[in-house]
Amino acid sequence: MIADYQKACQKRVDDCLQALFVAPHPQLERLYQAMHYSVMNGGKRVRPLLVYAACEALRGERAEADGAACAVELIHAYSLVHDDLPAMDDDDLRRGQPTTHKAFDEACAILAGDGLQSLAFEVIASAAHNPADPALRLQMLGVLGRAAGPAGMVGGQAIDLGSVGHKLDRAALELMHRHKTGALIEASVRLGALASGRADAASLASLSQYAQAIGLAFQVQDDILDVESDTATLGKHQGADIARDKPTYPALLGLDAAKAYARELHDLALHALRPFDSAAEPLRDLARFIVERRS
């Protein structure tokens, strides 16, 4: 059951994350409180789940993937803190609670995001909770850096901000989301595979195909939920993308076609996993969860 798997992995990564937010000096207490608030205020932990599931698909041990699982969640949380700022999306609600700059202040939120980003790389570079081989950890650092930076998530946010009020064609919309949302999801799967110590070129190629499909499916479903769900369920303001005149899949394709596309991407993800045995069942369940989730 995906619910049981999700609960176990969430507890594991949350326990690891919790240990990171101990201020080394009293003067840093408020900063660490803001970082803790930004990460530990809920969330589905989809990216850490993908790290663990990809590691296990290659018969790796979860303990080898703890560092990568924490790192991708720290990057994700930092991106949300900065995306919510007035200079970006100007949101005041995240996961049903005030956004970090509302709960603290803008300056503290910027610093908290900066701190979370830096901490992610410190965590994945450490020998603790990661593969012992330093060459493998260096490779993982490169994967995370590319996914989080201008060639990945940051680049996607830049495209997103520049697209408000503009009509994008399907290719341009996919380019934006493969960067903004897909890059970190793809990195999560790849990092989990690398953490197993058993990844070869063929398995990485198949897992990349899987990750590309679910990364895009995640965003398509987000766009659908922005139309169909409600603020209480989403934990953020429903209809925000429409209000900002952002390009979305329902706006471009129509709602029914967007739903069909999400199902198509789900099927592509499952097809990519055909070379894997039952050890990859959590990855299959996560693909289904991503296109069926309601928040």
General description of the model:
There is one protein chain. The chain is mainly α and 295 residues long. The chain has one domain (2-290): Farnesyl Diphosphate Synthase (Orthogonal Bundle), CATH 1.10.600.10. It has 15 helices and two strands. The chain has helices spanning 2-18, 29-39, 46-57, 66-83, 100-103, 106-125, 134-148, 153-163, 170-195, 201-228, 231-234, 240-243, 249-253, 255-272, 281-292; strands at 93-94, 97-98.
As a percent range, the share of strand residues is under 5%
Reading the helices and strands in chain order gives: HHHHEEHHHHHHHHHHH
CATH architecture: Orthogonal Bundle
What is the residue-averaged pLDDT? 94
CATH superfamily: Farnesyl Diphosphate Synthase
State the distance separating the first and last CA atoms. 19 Å
Number of domains: 1
Query: What's the number of extended β-strand segments?
Result: 2
- Can you tell me the CATH class? Mainly Alpha
Rounded to an integer, what's the Rg over CA atoms?
A: 18 Å
User: Would you identify the regions where 5 or more consecutive residues have pLDDT less than 50?
Assistant: none
Q: Indicate the overall shape.
A: globular
In DSSP terms, counting alpha (H) and pi (I) runs of 4 or more, how many helices? 15
- Going by helix content, strand content and strand pairing, the class is mainly alpha
> Which fold name fills CATH's third level, the topology?
Farnesyl Diphosphate Synthase
Q: Kindly report the spatial arrangement of strands forming the biggest sheet.
A: 1-2
